[in-house]
């Protein structure tokens, strides 16, 4: 979400008209540049706005010079940060291009035709905002009233539906030497973001096929093909891995691994609501089993 914050700041400073932000017409480029370095796809938003600004600008050469100056400074800071954290000179935007465009590794997670964005992507994302958008223009005096109603609905939903509390609850029941195993589809929880303890945790990985292995399957798919076999194979027949003290999973998985849970004396220590309409490999409830 960092690039979203920088994009919001950049849009605020963008010269939507010539009178506003006089003398600061290029200030938005700092935020635009940072947002594009954090997430290169942010250029899809900024490129048309920049070209429109360039077309309106009287002194295009001066603006191009400022753009080059700002770009060099931001890129230099990025290189220094990457050098410090990676221990070698690395250009992360180049790696992004290499993996996602040149090697097309992103195709591992699925692909859509370019027209999909116009016929499915944009209508789905923007369609739900159309009604509040029209209401905001047609009922300016009632705008704050409707915002209050919407916020009350969100607050009440967060209060009575506990789907977002799974990691917070887990952080309370964990002990110092806990070992947590997440038997869920990749990135189903915020993981360490809400667990501020030094505990061992593992989730089913889903990295792409970096080494171009034939008939490659990610760990999550291998697990869900035969959950019970995967557990016994990885924990009962493996002297290196320690039997986890806590297992986090969706309720639909319980019948498939109940024998493993019984054998190692797991008991249900927490259950919380997840979704009214669960998708594949998820469930209506999230369960935490403890030893």
TrEMBL record:
GO annotation, cellular component aspect = endoplasmic reticulum membrane
Family, per the entry?
Belongs to the glycosyltransferase 22 family.
Membrane topology designation: Multi-pass membrane protein
What residue intervals traverse the membrane? Answer: 28-49, 61-79, 114-135, 141-160
Q: Name one Pfam family in it.
A: Glyco_transf_22
Q: Which BP terms does GO give this entry?
A: GPI anchor biosynthetic process
Entry annotated with the keyword Cytoplasm: no
Q: Which domain of life is it from?
A: Eukaryota
Q: What class of enzyme is it?
A: transferase
Q: What is this protein called?
A: Mannosyltransferase
What are the GO MF terms of this UniProt record?
A: alpha-1,2-mannosyltransferase activity
- Under Enzyme Commission nomenclature, its number is 2.4.1.-
* First and last residue of the signal peptide: none
What are the top taxonomic ranks of the organism? Eukaryota, Metazoa, Ecdysozoa, Arthropoda, Chelicerata
Q: Where in the cell is it found?
A: Endoplasmic reticulum membrane
Please classify the protein's predominant subcellular localization into one broad category.
endoplasmic reticulum
The alphabetized UniProt keywords are: Endoplasmic reticulum, Glycosyltransferase, Membrane, Transferase, Transmembrane, Transmembrane helix
For the keyword Transmembrane, the answer is yes
């Amino acid at each position: 979400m960092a690039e979203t914050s920088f994009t919001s700041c950049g849009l605020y400073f963008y010269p939507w008209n010539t009178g506003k932000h006089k003398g600061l017409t290029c200030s938005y480029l700092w935020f635009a540049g940072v947002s594009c370095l954090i997430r290169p796809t942010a250029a899809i938003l900024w490129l048309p706005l920049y070209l429109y600004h360039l077309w309106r600008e009287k002194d295009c050469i001066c603006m191009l010079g400022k753009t080059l100056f700002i770009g060099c400074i931001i890129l230099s800071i990025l290189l220094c940060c990457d050098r410090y954290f990676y221990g070698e000179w690395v250009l992360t935007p180049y790696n992004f291009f290499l993996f996602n465009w040149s090697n097309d590794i992103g195709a591992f997670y699925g692909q859509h035709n370019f027209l999909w964005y116009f016929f499915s992507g944009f209508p789905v994302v923007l369609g739900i905002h159309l009604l509040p958008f029209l209401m905001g223009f047609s009922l300016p005096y009632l705008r704050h009233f409707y915002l209050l109603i919407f916020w009350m609905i969100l607050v009440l939903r967060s209060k009575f539906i506990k789907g977002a509390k799974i990691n917070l609850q887990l952080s309370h029941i964990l002990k110092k030497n806990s070992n947590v195993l997440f038997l869920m589809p990749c990135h189903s929880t915020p993981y360490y973001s809400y667990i501020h303890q030094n505990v061992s945790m593992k989730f089913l990985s889903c990295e792409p096929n970096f080494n171009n292995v034939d008939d490659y399957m990610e760990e999550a798919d291998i697990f869900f093909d035969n959950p019970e076999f995967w557990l016994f194979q990885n924990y009962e027949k493996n002297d290196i891995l320690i039997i986890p003290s806590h297992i986090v999973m969706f309720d639909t998985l319980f019948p498939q691994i109940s024998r493993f849970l019984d054998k190692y004396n797991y008991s249900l220590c927490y259950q919380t609501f997840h979704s009214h309409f669960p998708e594949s490999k998820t469930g209506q409830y999230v369960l935490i089993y403890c030893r």
